[in-house]
Amino acid sequence: MGKSLVIVESPAKAKTIHKFLGPDYVVKPTGGHIVDLPPKEFGIDIERGFEPKYDVIKGKTKVLQDLKKTAGEVDTVLLATDPDREGEAIAWHVANSVVRKGQPYFRVLFNQITRDAVLKAVENKGCLDMRKVNAQQARRILDRLVGYKVSPVLWKTLYPGLSAGRVQSVALRLIVERDAQIDAFVPEEYWEIKARLSTSRNEEFDAKLVRKNGKPVKIKCAVEAETIARELSSAAFRVKEVAKKKTKGNPSPPFITSTLQQDAARRLGFTVSRTMRVAQDLYEGIEIAEGSAGLITYMRTDSTRIAPEAIEEVRSYIAGKWGSSELPGKPNIYRMKKGAQDAHEAIRPASMSLSPNEVKTFLTPDQFKLYSLVWNRFVASQMKPSESTVITVDIAAGEYELRASATHLDYKGYLAVYDEIRQEDDEDQGAAVPEGLKEGEPLALKALTPSQHFTKPSPRYTEATLVKEFEALGIGRPSTYAQIINTILERKYVHREKGKLISTDLGRDVNRLLVLGFPDLFAIDFTANMEEDLDKVESGEDEWLHVVEEFYRPFVLSLERFAGQSKELKKSMIAQTDERCERCGKPMVIRWGRNGRFMACSGFPACKNTRPLEQEGAKESTGEVCEKCGSPMEVKTGKFGKFLACSNYPACRNIKSYSLGVKCPLEGCDGMIAEKRSKKRRVFYGCNRYPSCKFASWNKPVAISCPACGSPTVTEGKGGGYSCPRCRHSFEIVEK
Predict the structure, then answer these.
(1) Residue 163's CB: how many other CB atoms inside 10 A?
(2) What separation, in Å, do the N-terminal and C-terminal C-alpha atoms of the chain show?
(3) 370: burial class by Cβ within 10 Å (0-12, 13-18, 19+)?
(4) Which residue, among 113, 63, 143, has the nearest Cα to 487 in the 3D structure?
(5) Backbone angles phi, psi at 249, to 5 degrees
(6) Strand, helix or coil for residue 699
(7) What phi, psi does 401 have (nearest 5°)?
């Protein structure tokens, strides 16, 4: 038997798999896609049935040459890319680009990278699934159609360089509309009254006013609250009813992609991209004492299904560690959500023989945290429910009724392993109600506490809650969530502030334009239905060309309709002001340009007067004065980012770098960090002592000391945490 070439996506996976297969196999990585639609041309021949043109991706020529050379030296090629649509498409492109004519090639699929799983997959090799390939190709073509046909609309209406995306623009719409709801929200005042009560045994507890004459109490102002408090202060309090209810809390199913992203954000503070990056490492293989091994199953999945052998293994683990009394009589089986593809198992440990503590020394802090999360969730999913007693005490006070409640945990069950976080229950969980209360028992009033509150709008989206919304609405697929969020952040349509995703002025105007011009294309229902159509292509219920054609016909009509109203839409993007042009006296308007919004004369092109748009509210204070004339320095924005300019301009033209107020981290340099822009207009950070100091970073420096070397400045990581530019130490700051 001759040698076989096994082609995977990442070098880490190649290294792990090679150790399992031995000398008869050569394992090579592609580094992701090797071909794609051309970046600087449309690349789709609509007249020839939407035929795509694929070019070798820049930087992948040597990779492709190496794969071809190696394929020519072996008998068989095994395509072992990731087991999803994108992995199938990569395998197809590799087969078309690498495999020589007549050479046998096979598809190899494994849900986890362990020795047994890999050997079994190689033994049971199969064929490419062209339905998956076609579904992925249809998605890529649809995205290119939208990107190349709609983006010029933004260029003509706002400014060149902007871009639209089929799914990303819908994600932006969700954030913009939530922000608009919050901005328009009018808080309403309401009051609550709590009574501190005592039993004859001097047991004190709190109860909340809930009803008056059998109807819910709604207190709208302080006067009403004071009136009710006076009436309660002279009332006789007694126990009206004591109710006890036994409840069970069922464990959550093992993770799917979206729930892993949500819990990692909520419990660990990870961004979605950080979670997926760490999960990819755990899946592809970690060097441990026994050698390289994948620690978790494939992390892009929407299925809660678990292999029977994995269930048997985890039940044996539970029985061995806590006793068989902690096991339910039958394995817990979880229902999958409607529309789940069920292509892979849920995310779980690849082997129960490798607990987090046993491999902790081989893992980074992030890897250990995420692996522990996956491990504990999976173990808990096969344990017994928790059991609690909910005690509710209704208290009569004249025509009023108050209520006290508490939950007592009787049996932990799965909570011993994976404690659920339910923030909305915190108040009830912390309440204490004395045992032994009897109906009719008198109670003494110790204190009354009226408290003012205001209704709140729905909270702004975080990455975790946005992912939850994606899943609920059927927008995108688990493998795309991180990319969707990263794209709208990189395009400056949204910014992250204290963990919240908030739309920018640019994002709001882009969304407004897209919704006005293409109301159907960027509708949430339309995007969700398109995902269902792609699923039908994968299942064989529909043809990819039919799906693309059905999309394209109304899409062309939308483009034509927009062309007919482009002047009106462009005009609607111009904001009127009360200011007059100092040159010609005509009104000044607010327009969009490459550097953001600016003031321009409405008499353009006859009058080309422009000036920076003064930001709303107070100007950004610098605390600096011009060393030439003594006037205050102001923050301005130019072609290459922010800078300081003398407020006495044009009489004084002094300018200097805009400093972040952060010291340069390089040892021996006394410079300060300034925000700058590259020639391609990308923001970066450099020392203001340049060129004598050449420190530069794409990541934002902050004034936090490195715990390893003491450097006064570190840089923020893209996925969270910090990194020291001086000693390369990475760390996190955990709030206590």
Answers:
(1) 18
(2) 60
(3) buried
(4) 143
(5) -110, 115
(6) coil
(7) -135, 135
Selection from 448, 398, 402 nearest residue 229 by Cα: 448
C-alpha to C-alpha distance for 92 and 403, rounded to whole angstroms? 65
Total number of domains in the chain: 6
The verdict on 588 and 698 lying in the same domain is: no
**Same-domain pairing of 167 and 107:** no
392 and 245, same structural domain? yes
Q: What is the CATH number of the domain that holds 403?
A: 2.70.20.10
Domain with 348, as residue range(s), is 257-381
* In a domain? residue 211: yes
pLDDT for res 209: 97
Single residue among 352, 381, 410 that ends a domain in this structure? 381
Q: Is residue 679 within 8 Å of residue 659, measured between CB atoms?
A: no
Q: Phi/psi at 588 (nearest 5 deg)?
A: -90, 145
In this structure, the answer to whether residues 303 and 198 fall within a common structural domain is: no
* Residues ≥6 apart with Cβ < 8 Å to 48: none
* Per-residue buried b or exposed e for 489-512, using 16+ beta carbons within 10 Å of the residue's own CB: bebebbeeeeebbbbbebbbbbbe
Flag whether pLDDT at 616 surpasses 60. no
> Per residue in 303-335, is it b (16+ CB within 10 Å) or e — as a string?
bbbbeeebbebbbebbeeeeeeebbeeeebebe
Element (H, E) at 13: helix 11-21
* Residue 488 counted as domain residue: yes
Residue 189, H or E segment: strand 189-198
If asked whether residues 32 and 104 sit together in one domain, one would say yes
Query: What value does the mean pLDDT of the chain take?
Result: 87
542 and 398 housed in the same domain: no
Say yes or no to pLDDT of 695 above 80.
yes
E strand or H helix at 736: none
- As a whole-number percent, the residues of the chain with pLDDT over 70 amount to 93
Q: Whose structure tokens read 């004190």?
A: 204
Alpha helices in 418-493 (DSSP H): 426-430, 463-473, 481-490
Phi, psi of 123 (to 5 degrees): -70, -30
What are the φ/ψ torsions at residue 215 (nearest 5 degrees)? Answer: -115, 145
- Regarding whether 196 and 300 lie in a shared domain, the answer is no
Confidence at 132, pLDDT banded by 50, 70, 90: very high
Same domain assignment for residues 468 and 583 = no
Question: What positions carry a catalytic annotation?
Answer: 298
CA nearest 157: which of 494, 468, 567, 523? 567
Residue 736 lies in a domain: no
- Alpha helical stretches, state H, 185-285: 222-233, 257-263, 272-284
In a domain, 700, yes or no: yes
Three-class SS of residue 45? Answer: strand
The model's pTM: 0.77
Based on its alpha-carbon atoms, the radius of gyration of the chain, rounded to whole angstroms, reads 31
